[in-house]
Amino acid sequence: METSRRSQGQARSRLYPLALFLALYVVMAGTVTHVTGQGRLPACPPANLARCTCRDSGTGFSVTCNEYNIDVVPSPIPENTTVLNLSGNRITRVLKGDFNRLEQLRTLFLQQNRIGFIQPGAFDNLYHLELL
């Protein structure tokens, strides 16, 4: 009987740190969402978008990668991105495949870069683009 109580106590003591961690994680996730005011915060894909911010507007993603000194259009960008801000970087060229999967893109900010070359067809599949 005493051995059974001891094992239950040991099991509880092992589960306590895990329960505490999960509770803290839930609280912190809610705090980050609340403090930023951005609602649900989707993770930007890793790679070149690690420092970018993503916001789900309900109709698509708004991805902001401005003033990060990047020199190429980052990839991959979420397919349902509707606003992409790449302003204030060091992008020197825009290639045909850079926006290939972004058919829902409506707004693209590229100002204050060092663009010296735009490959023909770079914006071909941007059927919904309203502002460049």
Short synopsis of the structure:
With 132 residues, the chain is of the alpha/beta class.
List keywords for this structure.
2 domains; 1 helix; Leucine-rich repeat, LRR (right-handed beta-alpha superhelix); 132 residues; Leu-rich_rpt_typical-subtyp; repeat; alpha/beta; elongated; four-stranded mixed sheet; leucine-rich repeat; single chain; 6 strands
Overall pLDDT: 77
* CATH architecture classification of the largest domain: Alpha-Beta Horseshoe
The CATH topology of the largest domain is what?
Answer: Leucine-rich repeat, LRR (right-handed beta-alpha superhelix)
> Could you spell the SSE succession in H and E letters?
HEEEEEE
SS-based class: alpha/beta
β content, as a range? 15-25%
Number of strands: 6
InterPro entries: Leu-rich_rpt, Leu-rich_rpt_typical-subtyp, LRR_dom_sf, LRR_TM_domain-containing
Keywords: Leucine-rich repeat, Repeat, Signal
GO cellular component, one term: plasma membrane
Give an account of the 3D structure.
There is one protein chain. The chain is α/β, with parallel strands linked by helices. It has one helix spanning 2-36; strands spanning 53-56, 61-64, 81-85, 93-94, 107-109, 117-118. It is 27% helix and 15% strand. β1 (53-56) and β2 (61-64) form a beta hairpin. The longest helix has 35 residues, at 2-36. The radius of gyration is 22 Å and the shape is elongated. Residues 18-41 have low confidence and may be disordered.
